[in-house]
Structure formats: C-alpha cells, structure tokens
Fold these 3 entries.
Entry 1:
Amino acid sequence: MLDISSNTFKNPFPLLPKSVIYFSASDNQFSGEIPKIICELDSLGKLILSNNNFSGSIPRCFENFNTKLTVLHLQNNSLSGNFPEESVSVGLVSLDVSHNQLSGELPKSLINCTYLQFLNVEDNKQQRFIGVSFSNYSKSVVLTNTGSKMELLGISFNIYKTIDVSENRFEGEIPKSISLLKELIVLNMSSNAFVGHIPPYLSNMTNLQSLDLSRNRLSGKIPLELEKLAFLAWMNFSYNMLEGPIPQGTQIQSQNSSSFVHNLGLCGAPLQKTCSGEEEETRKEDQEEEENYQVLSGIVAATAYVPGVFCGLVIGHILISYRQDWFKKIFKCIA
C-alpha cells in the first residue's frame, strides 16, 4: 500500500512497484496525462488520483484489472474526452469522475458493474443516460441534501444513499429504473437538460428526503403522487417549464416559494400567483355558501313560526273562553 496524498508533489510521476494494491496520490500538483505505468500494476485494487491537475483522457486499460479494481477516484482534475468503455472494471464498487470536462455518453459497460455502490459524475459535460441502469447506483459519499453540500471522506458507504448527477448535460426523460431505488435518500438531477413530465413513480422511493430537479426543461404538472413522500423535507422544482396548481400536500406546501420560481405556468401557494379560474371558483363557493345560509335561515324561521302559531292559537282560545265566562257573569247580574 502506497499513500503519498496531501503533499505538493509535481511531475515526474513516481515509479511504482507492480505489487501495489492500493495507491493514493490525491491532493498534489501532478499534471499531464495519467501515466500509463498505472496500467502495469497487475494487482491494483484501489486508485485515488483526485484533486490534481491531470488532463487528457481516462486511460483505456482499467478493464485489464478485471474484478480487482474496486475503487477509482479521479475527481477534481481536467480530464476530457469520452468516458471509454475500456475504462470500466466490472469489479468497481466506487467510481468518481466528478468535476472534470468529460463529454459524451456514460459507458454502457457500467451495466456489468453489479457491485457498484457509488457513482458520481457531477459537473461534467455528459449528455445522456443511454444504456445505463440505476439499479446499482444506490450509495454515495458526496451528496446534496437540504440545500447544502456535504462531503464524507473514506470509502465506507453504509450510511448515506444518494444519486447526484447535477451540473451535466444529461438529456431525455428521467429514467423509470430510478424508481427501483426504494432506499434512496437524496436525488439531485439539477442543472441538466431533462425533458418531459416529472414521473409520478418517484413516489415509490418512500425514503426520499431531498429531491432537486431544478434547472432542467421539465414540463407538465407536479404529480399529486409526491404528496405520499412523508419524509421528503426539501425539494426544488425551480427554473423549469412546469404548469398548473402546486399540490396542497403538507410536505410540498412547507417549502419556500424559491423552490417553485421561474416556472411560468405554476400557480397557487406558496407562490403569490393565483391559478386561472381560482377566483371564479372562490366566488362560486361563496355564492353557494350564501345560498346555503339563506336556505338554513328559512328552515330556522319556519321552525320558529310553527310553534309561534300554535302558541298564539292556544292563548287566543284561553282569552276567548275567559271573555265568554266574563260576559255570562255580567248578564246574570243585570238580570
């Protein structure tokens, strides 16, 4: 095991013994292409070259390690070009190529990585999700939660579960396979080019706590099904093309209005914009309430009228009877 991380080492890159199984040179000042000498490390299991100045493409030799290479961290460099199919070892557990300049499609060979627990491609120029299944990408170390960014060091992924593919150029509809991740806690797909409607099947991820779909090209309505996500504490749908009334569920209504801004067709609380026909509907409800009040008043008046008439008749009968007796006494006295 060889760890030379967190120094100020520069080129030339060191010569490495072929027996190395763990090599970390992160947080240094190495530049240029990733040295081909790494491809000759027959037993390499973990390679961490993050936070340097490496440029050029990702070496195409990593598949030579077969199932041995489990960790490949190349984040925070200046790597460019396509993500080669040949760069994927089927034994990968953790793959981080975030904050580079990679473009094109994610390699379809990722489907064969059945042990993959962590995938981070944030802040690149990736364009599509073609051929990629999310059923394996359920755990992560870097995540965006409740509006703030957190970084967890190490390679133990037993606590946090997230997908963060923000700030790329992914396009097309949100993949249906993402709903298979029942234990997902954080989903961040912001700042891409996703189109279509927000899929109602996101409600299948019942443990979801943070959902960020902002800055895409999503259209249609916010699904009512999202009201079922009892743990969803933070969400962001801003800067899309959404329309219609915002669902009135407690979790959604508790959000700040900033989570819904810059959607010209969205209306209703917590936005100040009232929905089309909402005032008319309110007026109709007020009118119905007034009519119901008048009917109720009539019933009350009628209910009060009947006993009143009855009491009047009784009192009149008593008075008439009393008068008749009084007149009889007068006539008897005169006689």
Entry 2:
Amino acid sequence: MSVQHDPVQRADFDQVMVPNYAPAGFVPVRGQGSRVWDQSGRELLDFAGGIAVNALGHCHPALVKALTEQANTLWHISNVFTNEPTLRLAHKLVDATFAERVFFCNSGAEANEAAFKLARRVAHDKFGPEKCEIIAATNSFHGRTLFTVSVGGQPKYSDGFGPKIQGISHVPYNDIEALKAAVSDKTCAVVLEPIQGEGGVLPADLAYLQAARELCDKHNALLIFDEVQTGMGRTGELFAYMHYGVTPDILSSAKSLGGGFPIGAMLTTTELAKHLVAGTHGTTYGGNPLGCAVAEAVIDVVNTPAVLDGVKAKSEQFKARLRAIGEQYGVFSEVRGLGLLIGCVLSDAWLGKAKTILDAAAVEGLLVLQASPDVVRFAPSLVVEDADIEEGLARFERAVAKLVNA
C-alpha cells in the first residue's frame, strides 16, 4: 500500500528552501538504471549520476536488497557500540587498499575534515605545534565545512565567512616546481585530488604525484588523496591512486562509496590512526548500519574485474563519440579524464557556456554536469548499458547541433 503525500511542485522550492541552490525547473521522482522520470512522466537519461554518486545507477537490485534487509534489522546504534555492517565494510576496504584502518562518516567533507585533523594531530604529536601547514592546489575542491572550504583553492566558496583557518597555502596544480618551493619542514600535509573534479576534470600528471610523494617523505609530511569523486571504480581502478601507482598516507572516500546512500570514509595506516585516540574525533551517524550495509553491497559489485574492465571500455566509447561531436561542431578543444569521469573542455568560442549546454541537453532528455563554466562533465553509472550510452550521446549531439545552428 503506497502512502499518499501532499502534492508539491518546483515552485515550492522557492517558498520553503534556503536559496543556496538553483535546481532545474523539473522534479525527478523515480529512477531505474540509467534513466529517471520527472513529475510529468518525461524520461531522461542520467549521465550526471547525482554528481558521481550513483555508481550503480538508480535502484540497483543489490543495493535495494542490502538496504531493505538492513532496514528490517538495525538502523542506528551509535558509536557507543560497533556493529556488524561497519566491521564487514571496513574489512573489505582494508583488504582492497593500502589502508589498515578506517574511519566512517557521512560525506566527503567529513572524510576530508577527518583527514586534515588527523594530519595536524600526527604532526603535533610527533614534531610539535609549529608543524601544521597544509598545502593544497588552486581550483581544488574538498568540501563545504569551514576547514575543508579553506583547504579548497577556490576563494569564491570560502570568502565572506569570517576569518579563515590559518596555515593553509595553495599552489598551481600539476606544477612540480611550485610544490617544491612550497613544501617545508613546517608542512604537515599535501592534499591533492588525483583528478581535479570541480576544478574541470583535470587529471594529475604521474610525475606530479610522484614528486608530491617524494617531497612528503623528505619533509615528514603526509600525502592525502581526496578520492571523494575519483574513488570506488570511477576511474576503472577501485581508487585512482592505483592507476598512478602512488600510495597516499591518508585517503578520503564518499560519493560513490554508498551508491547514493550518504556515507564517507577516511582510510589510513595503523601507525597514523593511533593518533586519534578515543574522544579525539567522532560523528553521531558515522558507520551506521544502513550506510555500511549499502556500501558493502556497492564494493561487492564494483570491485570486480567485470565492472572495472567495463568502466575502461565504456570510457573509450564515451570519449570517441564525444571527440567526434567536438570536432564536427567545434564545441570542444579537449576531451579528458579517466574512466567514467570525463570532462569536455569548451573551445574558445564556447567558453563560459557549460550551463547553456547542460540546459540544452536536459531539453533533449539527458542529464549532464558542468565542472567550472568551461567544462561539460559526464559521471554516469559505472554499469551504464552500451545502448544507453549510444542513446544518451545521440541526445547530447542533438542538443549541441541545435545550439550551434541556432
């Protein structure tokens, strides 16, 4: 028996919600696989993936089953106790990565907050309070808390909220010499996204990440990889650091980790984890049974050769067609990214018009994203069917053609 709800429309948003978002004019109400339907029953293909969150699309049966079974068993017990789904998920993450210890929370910002606090605590305990500086990249994005937004190198997100957290500096991404000049014995951590997501789907050069690792080792600093957007199979490896062969000291994960259920994780080593003794950090909902049960189902599906190899193959299918569209219509100067995190960099004539293309795609029944005003971003389901890729990119081409010929 379905519950009757009071009718609501897009206009209600402007009456009852804080205006910090500007959502689309239509309201999605149902999803299945790589398709969603809005209130009018219109079907759209989803290549946005909830901003790289819906790793297995909408209503994947393994996730629905995990959530339903757990919902009938135990929802919340708090961290006064541990629980079985938390321990199973932690084991699977440890077994699959460099990590030996896991801290669970509810979002990417919280995972990064924990990572940054851990880095400062380790440096404080081992070297004293002077060793507290964090170096991050310009145009990075690490979350919206005051600490994480200060580490993120985009002043438009951090200005206007009072004094910023001190001891944070920013250097150009992929610039080894700038990084060398910045790192010192006062540095406690270097924080990098292996692929800058919000900054334009910009992959790191291998030499850059290798240099960061060497500099951190030389100066007793920790290397933190923010894999909130790149992790959980998005690049064709379980985590992007595996693609590069550069191992961090601390890694943050969220987004795809729960496949749409809010969960985040900070992964690290036993040696570093011991600095967060009981009472030093916490979260009410972190590691709750519902989130961990769903995330366990996600990793069981994603961390398989079939899915990870599929991501690499689908990536080539996307890139080849997007490059062809870019050449035919003159809209893209470059198609870049790894796996199913793809950025189409707009050509000079189209700079600043990513939102225009996004809106035109929605009219044709396709959901895509932007990553800065100059990059159209694709982050579809990792198991998107080949036929859906063809259909979605046909819709995308129609949208581009109408804009170019307008």
Entry 3:
Amino acid sequence: MFLVSGPDIVIAAARAGIVGSFPTPNCRTAEELDAWMTRIVAETAGAPGLWAANLVTHSSNARLADDLALVAKHRPPVVITALGSPAPAIAAVHAYGGLVLADVTTEALGRKAAAAGADGLVAVASGAGGHTGSLSPFAFVSVLRSFFDGIVCVGGGIADGGAVAGSVAAGADLVYMGTRFLAARESMASDAYKAMVIAAGAEDLVVSPAITGTAASWLKPSLTAAGYDVGNLGAAPPRNYGGEPTAKWRDLWAAGQGLHAVTAEEPVAAIVDELERGYDAAFARLSDRRRT
C-alpha cells in the first residue's frame, strides 16, 4: 500500500475490527511519521482492531534508525518488516511487547526470518500486489507450517471472505489484503488510481523487477501512461529503497490479482462487513459438506 495507506485508512480499519497498516516510507520525513503515529495512537484507543507499521529493513533505507526510534516511542502493536531481515526491528519491538511479522517470498527467507526471532511469517505469494512472490498461497502456507509454529499470514490474490476462509483452513492465522482496499474511501490513492483499479482485471497486470529491482505487480495502463514499454520493461535496476517518494512513484500504480472484487469506492467498514459475510458463508458451506 505504498503511497496509498495513511492515518485515515489505518484508523478506519482498526475501528472496523481488523489490523490497519501503512509503510513508514509513505511519510516524507520522520517528523511527519511522528505526527501520523501520534494521531493513530489517539484515534485507535479502545478500537476492536489493531494498527501496524511496515518498515523497509533493506540496507538502502537510510531512515530506518529514525523510524525505529518512532516505533519505540509510539509502540505499534504489530510491526511488519519488508525487503530485508526482521533482525533490526526485533529488539526494539520486543522491548515493549509488540509483535514482529516478516514478509518472506521463499522458504529460505522464511527460515532466516524465523531464526532471527520473528513472531510471524508473512507468505507473500503469487498474486500479491506490489512486491510479490511466485509460490502458490496454499503451497507456501503449507511449507512454512512444516517448520514454523508461530503466526503465519498469507497474501496473494485474497479478495473476498471465501479466500480468507480458505487461507485459514489451509493453516494461516491471518491474511494480507491490499488490493481490496485500494479504492476504499479512506485510501490516499488518487481518483484516477481508484478508477483504474475499479475498471481493471488480472489481465491488466504485469509482474516485473524492472521498476524497483524486486519483482512487483503493476497495473499495465499506469506504466504505459508513464512512458514504459510494457512488452519490454528491461533489466532490473539496483535495489534502492531510500530517499523520499517522487512524482515517479505517484504515477506508477501497483495492484494484485484480487482486482475483480473491487467494483466501487466504498468505506472500509462496508468492505469489512462484506468480507465477514463471505467468510461466514464459506465456513457454512464447509460445514454442510462435512455433514453430507
């Protein structure tokens, strides 16, 4: 949810009973991040859900130390690490009793994150928006469960309550959902981005490392509008996740394979209600099949 999730969507998610998260690079400065976290802490107090901060722990992130200091100050209940080892965050987060979940795209990375002390592993699987993996969500959950008994979260094309139920049945504790919330009323996505998400389907996606150096799922029309040749995106550049967001990133839009479920701009609370209904219906179907 790079440049998409901010305080409004995080607060709305927590109030709706789920976990709302945002990448700390969505803030241009540490001062802005401090202000965001101050507001989120105040406005999620007593909410049925939680909030989470997503940290880029790659070595190119020059602001990581500042972001970690703010994590220690504001104490998000959950910290998610991405594009690097969870090790830099673990001591600071565990010191106040928080949980660290580590994004992983392979079994090898999952084993490394578990060895580093992560409380949970996030299986970033095929179909995920933005930086994505290549493994089937169900296969990935199974392989992580073969060696890890902590929290397992899975993301990749999960767009409705049935997919949430299927993930839980397969062994996951939690799911990542980004694409389903891109067009949420509280999202920071531009009107044009929301309109493209609503109109697009999975065939409008391309997965390539050519933009950031890491394989990511992009909306083809946004790349074309920015002057890219979608059929020849070129080689991957060096990975660099430092610095401030530029106009380039505001115009290049990511999404995952759950696009089909996004049909209108809706408030977060309405999306969560729909997901809950779908989840309950899916487990009712499973229960009926067991009886027959």
